[in-house]
Amino acid sequence: MAFETQAAAKYLAQNVAAASGTIGTVDIRxxxxxxxxxxxxxxxxxxxxTVQLAIDRRIEDGAVVPNWEQIVAPTAISAVGTSRADIGxxxxxxxLPGKVIRLRWVTTxxxxxxxxxxxxxGLPEY
Length: 126
Description:
This protein is mainly beta. Helix content is 0%, strand content 63%.
C-alpha cells in the first residue's frame, strides 16, 4: 500500500515548542490507513533528552468524556530527525486507526524543550 497514491496530507501543527503536549483531535474517518510523522527540528536542555511520540484513537463508547487507547508509540528520538508511524491493514501497525485520533509527545531527560512539526497522510478507502 503506497501513501503516494490518492493520499491526502494534513499538517496538524508547525513549530510546536514544548516539553510535552497533545495535538487535539483529528477526524480520520475517511481513511483506512494513515502515516503520522513528527519532524523534530530542535531539542534543547536537559540531560540526554529524548522525544517520544504516541498516537491514540478515541474509543467510540458514547462516553461524555472521550476515552482514548494508544495505538502505537514509535521509537523515541534523541536528535533532530523524524519519527513516523504507519497505521492500517497490512502496515507496520496493522490495525484500523479508528475515526478520531490525537497525537501526544513527551520529552525525557530533565527540563527539555522540543520544537517539531506534525503531519498526517491518509489513504482514502477504496
